[in-house]
Design goal:
With 283 residues, the protein is α/β, with parallel strands linked by helices. 39% of the residues lie in helices and 13% in strands. It has 11 helices and 8 strands. An 8-stranded parallel barrel has the order 1-2-3-4-5-6-7-8, surrounded by 6 helices. Helix 1 links the parallel strand 1 and strand 2. Helix 7 crosses helix 8. The longest helix is centred in the last third of the chain and has 18 residues. It is globular. The structure holds 2-phosphoglycolic acid. The site of 2-phosphoglycolic acid has 13 residues, from strand 8.
Length: 283
């Protein structure tokens, strides 16, 4: 891709009302099949009665203030089939946590899009910072994985975010620009809005150190503006999530930010009750 000489310009005033909120739970390395089945049973009960979860976003008259969020679970490969059959017909999205870009080949230990589709998987997390930092995931590979997922019919959830050192050195925008541009480079303009982008500052993941609503809004609006450098229409429609220590008691103030369309939740998604409360905060 040619270097964009101009930094992303500020996004248009956000129209989050026209974008359906999306709350995804990322189990990471948690969830045997037995745990997964038990979890799904409990979650479906909670989602069927949102008031039981204490809906923070509901107006007093019982009319929801925003539209019902889409809900997704990102689970280990071995739990995918259990989760997709437990959630069949519920509308809850089932996501894998990684995928190889090739359909098949000499890539021992890898899993491809057709293998995921066969298990009833709808979406796939790509480029989570733990995969980037601990397992050598590269922007170059992600540039192939994102379009491969889209072409196969899986919704990619592309994760981006800066380290604490990068933020302190004033390098956040440079890092995000690089990750977003490379990840989306081979995606056609008319498919850009089919990618979910999760802004997850690495310093806020699993640390309990949540970004302030202003910090999260500033970065997600920058990510949206980067998409806008490719297509104004896609920038209006693409959903940008925030991730990093989202909990039931901080979800509301984060989710009400104009450019934040949802959350990718790690630790707090392992308990179906707290996950359902975060879903309720997005309503
Ligand atoms: P956390 O994880 O909510 O435990 O910080 C978020 C993530 O890694 O997606």
């Amino acid at each position: 891709m040619s270097e964009n000489p101009n930094p992303a310009h500020p996004a248009e005033p956000a129209a989050s009302g026209s974008r359906t909120p999306y709350i995804a739970g990322n189990w990471k390395l948690w969830g045997t099949r037995a745990q997964a089945a038990e979890y799904c049973e409990r979650l479906l009960k909670l989602l069927a009665q949102p008031e039981a979860a204490g809906s923070a976003g509901r107006a007093g008259n019982g009319i929801t203030s925003r539209r019902r969020p889409e809900v997704g679970l990102c689970v280990p490969y071995t739990a995918l089939e259990t989760v997709s059959s437990a959630l069949a017909g519920s509308g809850v999205i089932v996501a894998a946590q990684n995928m190889h870009q090739a359909e098949s080949g000499a890539y021992t230990g890898e899993i491809s899009a057709p293998m995921l589709l066969e298990l009833g998987v709808d979406a796939v997390v790509l480029g989570h910072s733990e995969r980037r930092q601990l397992f050598g995931e590269t922007d170059r590979a992600l540039g192939e994985k994102v379009p491969a997922a889209l072409e196969a019919g899986l919704q990619p959830i592309l994760c981006v975010g800066e380290t604490e050192e990068e933020r302190e050195a004033g390098d956040m925008e440079r890092k995000l620009r690089h990750q977003v541009q490379e990840g989306l480079e081979q995606v056609a303009d008319d498919r850009l809005a089919d990618v979910l982008i999760a802004y997850e500052p690495i310093w806020a993941i699993g640390t309990g150190k949540v970004a302030t609503p202003d910090q999260a809004q500033e970065a997600t609006s920058f990510v949206r503006a980067l998409v806008g450098d490719r297509s104004k229409d896609a920038a209006e429609r693409v959903r940008v999530l925030y991730g990093g220590s989202v909990k039931p008691d901080n979800a509301g103030e984060i989710l009400e930010q104009a450019d934040i369309d949802g959350a990718l939740v790690g630790g707090a998604s392992l308990d179906p009750d707290s996950f359902a409360r975060i879903v309720a905060a997005a309503e």
